[in-house]
Amino acid sequence: MRLSGLAVLGWVAVILCTSSCELSELSDPIVVSDVEDEFKIIPWERLSPEGRTFEFRLETLAVQDCKSASISHQLNINGNQISLSIREIDAPKDCDPGTDPALGVANAGELSPRFYELTIDLKNTVFNEGQLSVFGDRYVIDMESTEGFEIANRELRRVPEQTIWGYVTYPKNEDQGLAEDLLSDIDSISQTRDFTSGHYGYFRINDNSTNKVTIAGHPNTLNLKQFIYQYEENLDDLATLVEGYRNQYGEQLDIRLYTWTGEEL
Question: Looking at residues 159-182, what average pLDDT do you find?
Fold first, then answer.
């Protein structure tokens, strides 16, 4: 019988209290096997005009009875050693009614390309050892065990410099031509590029040549055009182009365009 991660932690706490020994006083880590996964860890590269940082994004696999619930955690980095401790699920007093996963973000900052020893634990009780490898074009997580959590996309490819991507939707079929005109105009001032297939967080590059890119969070509609390009020109020119379409066809097209600098135009 598999026990939930928090249930196992509860029994461990009872045993420790019975032995009159505080968890913080233990010198050796406790390894508990066969713990049910309760959390998801999502490797992520946060893009901004100031640079890039690596994040461990956290969420519960089960929804919580509070839309604003969060996951408390602690992240420590010492040289080539990274330790992430997942603590409690916290719900604020002014809880927003509803059901959503609890969320958390542990930002590791800008990581230099190298190998990092990685430890992930639940409440300083269930320990998992592994490695985070940072390369110039990707991050790779390899764990010896993943007790209490699962990792989404163990390999995260880094968004190449000068990359733009996005999508356009059109509620009416007759407006497909307008969407194609927009993509043609973007294509005329951009360059095509052979992106390595894989997961980039913000989008996925597919092996299927008929559907080269899948943008994360795109609407579930057939009236959708997705795109990705290399863009070497001034971003202001691209913003002007997109804004012109929005001003003229705002009720016919919904345009989303993102850049390697973390901006949405």
Answer: 96
pTM: 0.81
pLDDT at 157: 97
**Secondary structure of residue 79 in the 3-state scheme:** coil
- Among 157, 186, 201, identify where a domain stops: 157
User: Which residue segment(s) compose the domain that 18 sits in?
Assistant: 3-157
Strands 39-48 and 81-90: unpaired
Tell me how far apart the alpha carbons of residues 193 and 182 are, in angstroms, rounded to a whole number: 19
- DSSP letters, 39-64, are EEEEEEEEEETTEEEEEEEEEESS-B
**What is the C-alpha separation between 45 and 110, in angstroms, rounded?**
9
User: Tokens in use for 86?
Assistant: 């997942």
Per-residue pLDDT band for 37 (boundaries 50, 70, 90) equals low
Inter-CA distances, 201 with 118, 159, 215, Å: 21, 9, 9
Tally of domains within the chain: 2
Q: Specify whether the CB–CB gap between 202 and 215 falls below 8 A.
A: yes
CA 43-45-51 angle, 5° bins: 155
Q: What angle do CA 187, 189, 193 make, to 5 degrees?
A: 60
| Three-state DSSP class for residue 241 | helix
Distances (CA, A) of 100 to 32, 61, 64, 96, 162: 28, 10, 5, 10, 35
CA angle 57, 59, 65 (to 5 degrees): 150
Of 216, 162, 257, 262, the C-alpha closest to 42 is 216
